[in-house]
Amino acid sequence: MKDRVKRIFANAKEPLDAVVIMSSVEPLLDKAFFYLTDVPSGLFEGCIAVGFPDGSLTVFSSPLETESARVAPDVTVETFTTRADQSEKLRKLLPKSLRVGLNFHDLTHENFLHLKKELPYAEIYDVTDPVRKARAVKDANEIERLRHAGKIVSRAAEAIPSLLRNGMTELELAAEVEAMMNKFGAAGRSFDTIVGFGAHSAEPHFAPTSTRLEKGMGIVCDFGALYQRYCSDLTRSFAFGQPPAELKAVHRAVEEAQRAALDVIKAGVPGREPHLAAAKLIDGTRWKGLFNHGLGHSVGLAVHDGFSMNPRTEENLEAGMVITVEPGIYVNGLGGVRIEDDVLVTEKGYEFLTTAPREYFEVGSS
Ligand SMILES: [Mn+2]
Q1: Ligand 1 centre distance from Cα of residue 285 (Å)
Q2: What's domain 2-136's superfamily in CATH?
Q3: Is 76 helix (H, G, I), strand (E, B) or coil?
């Protein structure tokens, strides 16, 4: 993935000689390793990728994953046997007094100290921001996978009304939604599924429990599919049977807030503007102040992929970004509503990557 390697160097403020990406053990893997190598399979725990300004990339792989690494396009693979062997090969590749960029954001402190020791003459620079910026704007290959991850999660969302049963638990619904995603082609979930019934739905990141579904409860389901390492992230809100009148009105307000945010999304717009549009709409209702999180975030190899939209966002939207748009209103004791979709930012506006009906609210009452 020569272009991806080059983009990191182009984004760096200082001229660098090499960028070193090193993963620890699951879950402390650096997703930048997969961004640069595009290896379809493998964890690559403790492995290292070294990129150079001409776009070339060397991977130090354990024997365990060498075959997976060989599939990667444009990568030189060197297999190491022990950590000492890996260090020796690294020192040979990066002789003294080079300017070396490290991705501080995803490098464990232990590995940082290790690399400093193994490369004592190197000048170390933090490339967190150049890596983040490169990953924020997706290339065609990434967009294709994100589109597919969006399709899978949308199909699962469409199935939810048929899954709802009187007396089922939040944990059961979460498991069934995940099973749907797997059935439709997901390699797994992109984060722990959120299912909240009734008052639980007012907690944006609620972890499902054995609470049972009863008539008149609101439901929030927030979940995502992994497809070829790429994430989707979708939220739909339902009511089981006839919900309290206030919850219905909340749902309408959230739909309108999402519409207002989407209407301002296009390349060149400051990233805070869509957030402010949704917040303005919600703050003009009786639920003022109850939209208590940012409007959305970038999705990619990570479900929170480095860019986010909130009142403090300084960066502009760029064509090729894939972001969530997820306003919500949370009323303590009553319940909450959130509607979340993934969109691709374009020059003229945006394109939905998730498609399940948004307006659908009251479902099955028995
Ligand atoms: Mn999200």
Answers
A1: 23
A2: Creatinase/prolidase N-terminal domain (3.40.350.10)
A3: strand
CA 356 distance to own-chain centroid: 19
pLDDT at 148 over 50: yes
Distance 340 CA to ligand 1 centre (A): 7
C-alpha of residue 103 to centroid of ligand 1, in Å:
24
- Between the CA of 287 and the centroid of ligand 1 the distance, in Å, is 21
* Residue 259: strand, helix, or coil: helix
For 339, the token pair is 């509607």
Mind giving me the DSSP string for 164-209?
A: --TT-BHHHHHHHHHHHHHHTT-SEESSPPEEEEGGGGGSTTPPP-
36 C-alpha to ligand 1 centroid (Å) = 24
Q: Residue count of the chain, please give it.
A: 366
Q: Which residue type, as a one-letter code, is found at position 141?
A: N
Fold assignment, 140-363: Creatine Amidinohydrolase (3.90.230)
Tens digits of per-residue pLDDT, 213-226?
A: 999 999 999 999 99
CB-based burial label for 96 (10 Å; 0-12, 13-18, 19+)? exposed
58 C-alpha to ligand 1 centroid (Å): 34
With 0.90 as the threshold, say if the pTM is over it. Answer: yes
> What are the extents of the domains in the chain?
2-136, 140-363
- Closest by CA position to 3, among listed 106, 117, 134, 129: 134
C-alpha 296 to ligand 1 mean position (Å): 6
